[in-house]
Each structure stands twice: as structure tokens, then as C-alpha cells.
Amino acid sequence: MTNKKKPWGGRFQMPTDTAVEAFTTSIHFDRRLYRHDIEGSIAHARMLAAQKIISRKEEKAIVSGLKSILADIGEGRLQFATGDEDIHMAIEKELIRRIGDAGGKLHTARSRNDQVSLDMRLYLRDETDQIIALLKGFKSSLVRLARIEIRTIMPGYTHLQKAQPVLLSHWLLAYWEMLDRDEARLKDCRKRVNVMPLGAAALAGTNLPIDRQKVAGLLNFPAVSENSMDTVSDRDFVAEFIFTAAMIMTHLSRFCEDLILWASGEFGFVEISDAFTTGSSIMPQKKNPDVAELVRGKTGRVYGHLVALLTILKGLPMTYNRDLQEDKEPLFDTVDTVKASLQTLTAMSRNLKFNHVRMREEAVKGFSTATDLAEYLVVKGLPFRESHGIVGRLVAYGLRKNKTFPEMTLKEFKRFSAAFAEDIFDCLSVEKAIHAKTSHGGTAEKMVLKRITEIEGRSDA
Asked: Does the predicted TM-score (pTM) go above 0.85?
């Protein structure tokens, strides 16, 4: 295509180099914005007609033409070429081909700079809503599992060393809390996405008597951007979304890491359904947690997109620069990755089988009730630091004698402190240790059930 045929080609004397045309085109990835581009263009045309910048007849022709293009793209009847440059120019070119000169009036009082910002905001608003719905679905699956597994005991870990016994339900709700914060971040991010940029034009606004508030109303934007220069150069909302997505993937990756460890023979805490695992091409016995591993791996991919976008933005002079074309592929891939990860993990979580016997056996090991013994001595009047030391020496003794706490006699306990009495044996079972954790947010069954009931009763659950 010669520059004379391009919408911007008036002042150019030579055609664009074919290599440059291929290098600069974005139609192969930004075509996914077509619905949002047409939605924004229809609102823009209606506003132009309301302001008498174009006629009602021209508005009708433009809107009808855009709707026919929308249908044809959706049905696969309309394809685009590299020379179409981007989705905005491709649609405008096709509109002019279909309705003639009226199509050339659509771009009045706008630039691709504010147009692409509008498309991105419309797209991201829709995708954010979908991801919020997927988050809710995964959260619901965790709460359902937490209620089912309310009596399941497991070892809690710090530094990947056995620490204290907890309920599996408490572990499940820990991930619910992470995802609930993610949902809150997405909702807050959506407020800054949901600002109408059209009308900023290239960078300075326009001389024409447009009505930006009308366009905002037609597109359900509660706010209009306040500074035209900031409007066309702003990609904060994209960076903020990808950061929030990176946090979601962080939490999904941690969930997967636990399952990967737990599914190993060394732990044996969980069996992941065959539907969410794969085998080995050489080792017939293998059942690999590939889905969980891929989510863990894709997390790094989203981190990379965040760093890429921040790097693109960090040195840009005011206002719009073509560098901003590079924001779309990181954003699109982030959206696709987060949605696929949430969909897959939600389905996988509904098919987990926990080994209750194995988990309880491991919860008993490693002197996991040591803190309960220390707190027993605190209740008897000893300073915590002193009781900590006493129990630490008891642990060392147990290791030397190859004895667990329940295997020790009262006489042995009293060798370390006279404060120990017959009631010490009430502190030694993992069940009693768990049920004693009644502080707010603790792992006691009644506290976990209370939290499950609170979550289930939330209007936004």
C-alpha cells in the first residue's frame, strides 16, 4: 500500500518500506480489540451527531456500517492484512469502503492516541469483570472443600519444617484470604480503568464542540479523564492490572507448590486426579503434577510482562510514543494466562483426594505440640522465655531417648520442671492442641467453622 492510500499519508512522498510495514503493524494482535473499537466508535458517532458536527443521516450510515463490520468480523467473513496497520485503521478503511465519504467523518475530533486508550479501557474493564468472576469461583471451591475437610488434621510448617498441627480447612482458608485480597485489588484497579479518555485527541484536546460526558454516559464510564496530555500517555491502569494479576499468580503458584510437594511420595498428603496430571514418555509408573507445575511456571511469565511494561514506560517523554504499542501483547497474554490458570485450578481443586490418615500421622511427629507445652507452663506462672527453654530441653531429651511427648512419663516431665502435673497429658494430643487455638483467626475447629460461616454469608461471596 502506498502512503497516499493511508489515512495519514498526505505529506509523504515515498511508500513505507515493506520491512517497516511488517515491523510496525499490530493488526495481528490488536484485532482482538475490534468489539471495543466498534463500541467506542458508535458512541463517538452518536455524540458527533448530537453536537451537530455530523448529520443524523451520516450517523445512521456510520452506525449501520459499523454494526455490519462487527457481525462480519465475528463470523469470520472479514479478514485483515498487514497493510491495514492496526485494528482502528482497518475498521475505518472498511467503513469508508462500505458507506463512502460519511465513513471518513468518523475520525473527526479524535486521534488513534485517545481511541486506543478507550479500546484498552473497555477491553480491560470487561476482562477484569471476567477474572473477578473466576476468582469468586475458585474461592467458592476452597470454602466448599474447607467445610468438607473440617476434621482433617495436618502438620503446619515454617521453613518447610514441621511446626504445629493445624486443620486442613485452615490451610484452605489461608488461600481464600489471599484470593479475597486479590479480588479487592482488582475491584480497586477497575475504578482507575473505568475512566473515559476519548476527546483528548492527539494530546491537546480539540477545537470542535464535542461532549465528552455524553460519550462517557453511552459507554457507562462514571468519570472522564481530566488532562489530555496525561490521557494519551497514561498506561498506569495497564501496569496496575498486570501487577494485580502478578499477585494473583503468586498466590496460585504457592497453592500449586504445596500440592506438588504434597503429591510426592515423600509427603503423600494428596492425590491429584488423573484428569489434571500426565505421565512420562519413558517411565510407565509416573504421574506428574504438570498442571500445577505449569501454573507455577506461567507465574514467571506474568512477572516478565510486568517488568516489560514498566521498562517501556520508564523513559517516555510526554506524550504519546509508538513504544506504547508494545503494551498490548503483555496485557493480552497476562489476561489469557490468569483466566486459564484460574479455570484449570478451580476444576482441579474439586477433584483433590486428601490422605487423612497420612496427614494426621505426620502432624503428630516432630514434637509439634511443643508450643502447647510452653504455653501450659505459662499458665502455671512461668515466664514464657523460661518455659521455652524447659520445653526445648525436653525436646532434646526426647531426641536422645527416641521418645515423643506422649511416650514420656510424668516423672520424666518433672525432671525438667516441678510445674508439670497430671494435666500435662491433656495438652499432648494434636486434636486438643488444635482445638485450643481459639484466638481470633486461629485453627480451632470452632474458629474455622465461624470463618466459613462468615464467608458463606457474605453478599459478595
From this structure: yes
